[in-house]
Design brief:
seven-stranded parallel β-sheet; 8 helices; 16% strand; Rossmann fold; 7 strands
Length: 255
């Protein structure tokens, strides 16, 4: 393990999109480091299996099945975390998805889904979690899992709307930092912007279940556990150090 979570042992982390990919890897890493972890996702069976596995290893994990597009479900998930563990100390906004829906003839319902999950849910979780952090001493950490698509346009003609949502995450990260600074808060905010990470993203984006083999088979891609290590790196810096944005690409990724 690259970084020591001893200083956060017993603290509470809320991780969205925790049933697979980066979110699952982050939940595992934090639970293994002694944090009490609440995990939000739609796939209840995956969350329950993760709970059983982590409990067998001595970890604490609260499964919270919820659709993050539902504002009431978001509020309910944060409230359940506070009820069970007393508050939130670390929030990892990982839930996100992309759809290959062009601007000229794409499905507006898919655009709305991306906006609701990638932007609005992130804001709702952030607002509710920071309220808990500020009530618990005005310290804590918010980590947004963004994308390299938030720093440039992806190649080709697809993915413009998805990229727009990730550009929004970049703007919201800086806006949140400025609001917290103006409020004199000790809560820190970090964005991690990965390129190709070997997850289920490609299959969802293309609508083709076997797309991952093609997309992630071009060169060695970043693995979810490697992004989890970066989350741990960010949240374990000294209190006066704020890692604002980490850009992460596979060595072989050309753009």
């Amino acid at each position: 393990m690259l970084h020591d979570l001893e200083g956060l042992k017993g603290k509470v982390a809320l991780v969205t999109g925790a049933s697979g990919g980066i979110g699952e890897a982050v939940a595992r890493r934090l639970a293994a480091g002694g944090l009490k972890v609440a995990g939000v996702a739609r796939r209840a069976d995956r969350l329950q299996a993760l709970q059983a596995e982590l409990a067998a290893a001595g970890g604490v994990f609260l499964p919270l099945p919820a659709d993050v597009r539902d504002a009431d479900a978001v509020q309910g998930a944060v409230a359940a975390t506070i009820e069970r563990f007393g508050g939130v100390d670390v929030l990892v906004n990982n839930a996100g998805l992309g759809r290959d829906e062009p601007l000229l003839d794409g499905d507006p319902a898919a655009w709305r889904e991306m906006l609701d999950v990638n932007v609005l849910a992130l804001c709702l979780f952030t607002q509710a979690a920071i309220a808990s952090m500020r009530a618990r001493g005005d310290v804590g950490h918010v980590v947004h899992i963004g994308s390299m698509a938030g720093h440039r346009m992806p190649a080709g003609t697809s993915g413009a709307f998805y990229a727009a949502t990730k550009h929004a995450v970049r703007a919201l990260t800086e806006g949140l930092r400025r609001e917290l600074h103006a409020a004199g808060s000790g809560v820190r905010v970090t964005a991690i912007s990965p390129g190709y990470v070997e997850t289920g993203f490609a299959a969802v984006f293309t609508g083709q279940p076997d797309a991952g083999g093609v997309v992630y088979g071009q060169y060695p891609c970043v693995q979810p556990a490697e992004i989890a290590d970066l989350v741990v790196f960010a949240v374990t810096r000294p209190p006066h150090v704020q890692i604002h944005d980490l850009l992460v690409r596979p060595l072989g990724q050309p753009a």
